[in-house]
Amino acid sequence: MNNKELAIYAGNKIKEFRKIKNWTQQQLATKLNTTKATISNYETGYRSPKKDMLFRIADVFNISIDDFFPTPTAEQNT
Known about the structure:
Helix content: 55-70%
Number of helices: 4
Strand content: under 5%
Largest sheet: none
């Protein structure tokens, strides 16, 4: 998986967790002290959150940072 695919995957997970909480992009942005545009850029895969932001997002959602990344399949391990 290349960086762009990983950014898109992580962005989709951020969006998924945000929707589970029934939060708007603005509400999530406020909780993270950032902007709605930043959240939108993450969710579309246009930008990837830096490590510290990823940890903050995971904390807000009360999930593991690992939840933002695909699990390796047996094929990928060979």
